[in-house]
Design goal:
With 290 residues, the chain is mainly alpha-helical. It folds into two domains: 37-154, no CATH class; 160-290. It is 42% helix and 3% strand. The chain has eleven helices and three strands. It has a three-stranded antiparallel beta sheet, with no helix packed on it. It is globular. It starts with a helix and ends in an 18-residue tail after the last helix.
Length: 290
Amino acid sequence: MKGAALAIVALLLAGNARADDAAVARGAYLARAGGCHACHKDDGGGGGKVATSFGTLIAPNITPDRDHGIGRWREAQFVAAMRYGRAPTGVRYYPGFPYTAYSGLTDTDLADLWAYLQAQAPVPRPSPPHALTFPFDQRIASLAWQVMFFVPRPFVADAGRDDVLNRGRYLAEHLLHCRECHTPRNAFGGMLDSFAYAGNRDWPAGGTVPNITPDKETGIGSWNENDIVWLLQTGFNPDGNDVQGAMAELIEHGSSHLSDADLRAVAAYVLSLDPIAHEIRREEKTEPFE
């Protein structure tokens, strides 16, 4: 009887190990899609810079290092950071961390991301401080920003759309956070929702971000699904020009690793958007979305 009990325990442990491995594998895919490698670097130790109109933000260490990373965090604290933009200390994060999009991630995807991050090797590298101008270097500013502009947006599937379009919306709106860059913002960094995906003339890091609504004159109305998939896989536009800067990094470290089905879902969703006439002249385009 004792031997049988030990065998059952061994089987249960093996089953849990396989389940954990599967969660880590799913989390690795989600981390690619979410752009984690582009900002936090491939080792997760942070250091990526996000230039804004208010100064430069530095992506932190998200490895399980106990002194410099998130090794002392609990899973619930990770969920609060992703969904509500709130640190374990209660401090509110600056919106350069796109929790405004990640707030829509499902419980399952957040659990898988947590499993993946916890499985990574700790990197004992401290995170440099942000370099923001006054008064934006005061953390109370991030609380004020959240009060004015942030409402968590849990993802709810649209019963009027098929599974492909719902998957594309989930990816574009939340995981890939396309809306965050391709939507113009007001003077305080709040998104102008009436121009969602219509491009940004004043991308803080320099240059402009194109209109990706299917407007035929100012957007990508002449593109088809294959064109969008090709761009997200290779970084090349239909006209043969390649993207640069931040978008190139997001493709290299993120979207180029995604499945064809997911990329086609994103393409289908983007092409289903309402066209918005919002001209971003090509001669204005420089880094990072040339």
